[in-house]
From TrEMBL:
Keywords: Glycosidase, Hydrolase. It comes from the Eukaryota. Residues 5-180 form the Glycoside hydrolase family 3 N-terminal domain. It comes from Solanum chacoense. This is Putative lysosomal beta glucosidase-like. Residues 217-426 form the Glycoside hydrolase family 3 C-terminal domain. GO terms for biological process: glucan catabolic process.
Amino acid sequence: MTEIIPGLQGDAPANSRKGVPFVAGKTKVAACAKHFVGDGGTTKGIDENNTVIDVNGLLNIHMPAYIDSILKGVSTIMVSYSSWNGKRMHANRDLITGFLKGKLKFRGFVISDWEAIDKITEPPRANYSYSVQAGVLAGLDMIMGQENLVEFLDDLAFQVRNNIIPMSRIDDAVKRILRVKFVMGLFENPLADLSLANQLGSQEHRELAREAVRKSLVLLKNGKITSQPLLPLPKKVMKILVAGIHADNLGYQCGGWTISWQGIGGNDLTTGTTILNAVKNTVHPSTQVVYQDNPDVNFVKSNHFSYAIVVVGETPYAEMFGDSAKLTIAEPGPSIISNVCGVVKCVVVVVSGRPVVIEPYLANIDALVAAWLPGSEGQGVADVLFGDYGFTGKLARTWFKSVDQLPMNVGDPHYDPLFPFGFGLTTKPVKS
């Protein structure tokens, strides 16, 4: 994932000092690596929870991406809401100042998460002055917040005037923030270049996003018998069924943190192509495409479809709203799989931000595709389903059988996944 940093900031010169931020010009932006550190290892995967691991585990599992980010010249690093062995990361001076700024020699600035210093205490804001002191002394250079901005400024100024927070700590924060502003060129060009605004959502950008969709899809199953694959799908048949509300829902394709914090369902969120419309755009003009968001068994049986494309998955979420003890496909998804795949050959496309429980439906499914959150360019899904391009994606994480197996990682003695880390079937493009 750290490869995105030179894409955002530009490639740092070979002779540049390691740990010093670098931004290549006004067509580039400052990158932020987050959430430091151990955010992905919290107990039971619960957002803002406690990561229980020894120092060797923290350094070997959770730290390498930050080390690589710093070597690539990342400008800022955001701290995690979570705790490490019971200590809130936003108050962890040993890791922020001692390790990140000291040992790793990071010279950009460290930023808090949104109103995160409030949560240093339990309950939040139980002692706000202490939270300000603990966060700033831990090494936070920039504090994000809104509701209590004036209170924060007054409290910080009071603590500096009374030598509770030394001026040297403020100087360090100011130097780091100014350093990033200098490398961004904000003193020479303080305003954004609006001439670039019309490039947002351009056809070139959409084609790149479409390519990303094609390459990120993971084919998990292709045929109940390996010698009889279902994919690629034929474009010219009598009639096909597209089923599931996720098939015609840009909001569901995009997920949370799209326009709004939690995202929204429906097709009014943004401009793009739903998977349903992508299918219609791709099949032969003589092929009849029938869409039903929740078809029953009798409907499927009576229509004599050549095959079905079932699109199911999760509804949008972000942060703690995504916490789940079950990690199941949202209803009526499982019912649609049962109603459709028990009657006609089907490919199930799962739209989700993570692996979800697919048992006990897998046996009835002819082909299974993890589409993750494909975003606005659903045409990329159809590109691969119908063989204009081949499947090449591999799982970047283990796909479990049930939540009872979690946590489960490669190398664990009990490692027995539904699909292992790195798994992904391939297909070849169909020659036209």
